[in-house]
Amino acid sequence: MKIILDAMGGDNAPLAPVDGAIQAAEKLGVEVVLTGSTEAIQSALEQLGRKELPQGVSHIPTTQVITMEDNPARAFRDKKDSSMTVGLQMLKDGEADAFVSAGSTGALLSAATLMVKRIRGIRRAAMCPVVPTQAGGFVLIDCGATAECTPEYLLQYAYMGNFYAKRTLGLENPRVGILNNGAEESKGLALQQETYKLLQQAHDEGRLNFIGNVEGREAILGGVDVLVTDGFTGNIFMKTYEGGLIMFADFMKTMFKSSLASKLGFLTVKDHVAGFKKVFSPDEIGGTALVGISKPVIKAHGSSNAYAIYNAIIRAKEMAESDLIADITANVDHMRLAVGGED
């Protein structure tokens, strides 16, 4: 298994990618190819107390970096020798099994779509994170790739999320729902109402386990396995959820520090608190799959540390080893409203 890692992407690059790549090679037995500046990677190695890359980790030199200030739609064209562009070109050419980057989300989505290409028949790729919950977690699709969607896009998201939940969460018959402001069939705008009809038809045909509309609260409490929405709404949902967790963690921290009695009380529950933090830490998930792209591409969050990069590589390995792309490809005909040309 060979995985390409953008060594220059993210707030903590190149140190976190280099460190995460080394951990992955040593613990997972995968081969990791770093794309990035030779000087920057060497500096990171020195910070880690190493003189050279270990066995299982190699390096492809690049001279450019795509930054957050670059135009996402043009960055890969303007910077053809960037760590992201070179890595995706290698993936397209079949030189590796998957690609991971903590760099610009917009640039990665544009480059993956136009270079590696979508699966034939898929209208838009989607960002598909696994949202952690006390019940285990659910797949959210989409969380930011496409702000304005059509019912057909959401139909395809539902199928892709269903296959992803089967492959990544090991669910035999995932419960698929539409994120909405109520459970009734009539709730939502035209987008949600039309999508409801399409997913109900897919359910009646035995292709999806569609459970209807799902409110955000119910999703968080474990009421769904695949939550389908447009990228605008999904992004707001995801960031609000993350903000709520941060607020709750800060509240607990303040509460336990408020008095001597609360500090003593913390000693009795600190293991549970640590477990809570671990379950809901974005570092544990590591990365979000760009589902609908013809080859595995994983977006790690921009502030990823080495542990998060390591986990993103695990996600890439899992996706590359699964039959997810084959599942989607085999079912595209059921995911389209009409036969037509690629858009």
The gist of it:
The protein is an alpha/beta fold and 343 residues long.
3D structure, described in words:
- 47% of the residues lie in helices and 15% in strands.
- It is α/β, with parallel strands linked by helices and 343 residues long.
- The strands form two sheets. The protein has a seven-stranded mixed β-sheet with strand order 3-2-1-4-12-11-5, with helices on both faces.
- The two termini are 32 Å apart.
Key phrases:
343 residues, alpha/beta, Isopropylmalate Dehydrogenase, 2 domains, five-stranded mixed beta sheet, 15% strand, globular
Write the layout of secondary structure elements.
Blueprint: E1 2-6, H1 15-28, E2 31-36, H2 38-47, E3 57-61, H3 75-78, H4 83-92, E4 98-101, H5 105-116, E5 126-128, E6 130-131, E7 138-141, H6 151-168, E8 175-179, H7 190-204, E9 209-214, H8 216-220, E10 226-228, H9 231-256, H10 260-280, H11 282-285, E11 287-291, E12 297-300, H12 306-321, H13 324-330
Parallel strand pairs: 1-2, 1-4, 2-3, 4-12, 7-10, 8-9, 8-10
Antiparallel strand pairs: 5-11, 6-7, 11-12
Helix pairs in contact: 1-2, 1-12, 4-5, 6-7, 9-10
Structural class: alpha/beta
In CATH terms, what is the architecture of the largest domain?
3-Layer(aba) Sandwich
CATH superfamily of the largest domain: Isopropylmalate Dehydrogenase
For the record, the count of structural domains works out to 2
Please state the CA-atom Rg, rounded to the nearest Å. Answer: 21 Å
